[in-house]
Amino acid sequence: MTAIDYFFVTLSPFSYLAGTRLEEVAERTGATITYKPLDIMALFARTGGTAPKDRHPSRMEYRAQELLRMAKHLDMPLNLKPAHWPTNAAPSSYAIIAAQSAGGGDLGKLTHSILRACWAEEKDIADDGVIKDCLERAGFDPNLADSGLLAGAETYSSNLEEAVAKGVFGAPFYITDDGQRFWGQDRLTFLEAHLAGNA
User: Domain 3-195 is classified in which CATH homologous superfamily?
Assistant: First the structure.
């Protein structure tokens, strides 16, 4: 069985636009997914990236056009300027880490629910109530939002170190256990082809 390390950011519009397609790919190919939320600003600093606020206007204008094109193509609602962006991504990331450790629910649904809350529902994903609601709707104990904070912080930090060591520089980023790397939600078809032995 193939394993996929999924490096993502709960504030990333491109991670949001991945929807649940990674989970669908995994189901079709028999792959497993390990969810690895990380701090994208720290990743940018370590790998030569630039924070959105520091990018040239032409890059940001193109980013806006591309996001709207992708959202339309995927038939997904998207607010280019969410009411609560940027916000602190750590609490939602810790909740995903705790849920993965606890088991018993749908991690893909939880992850997408948090991303959708930010990019389509105008909710603050740093808010405890929002996180608990996402946990509950995905079949997890909502109290996971209040537990394992130290372990969550340690894993969040180690995810960053692992990402840097494995050549991750953006999000979403997918790495197979044979070392193939795929950057971006628009590379999921290539990931599936690789897992199916067709690429």
Answer: Glutaredoxin (3.40.30.10)
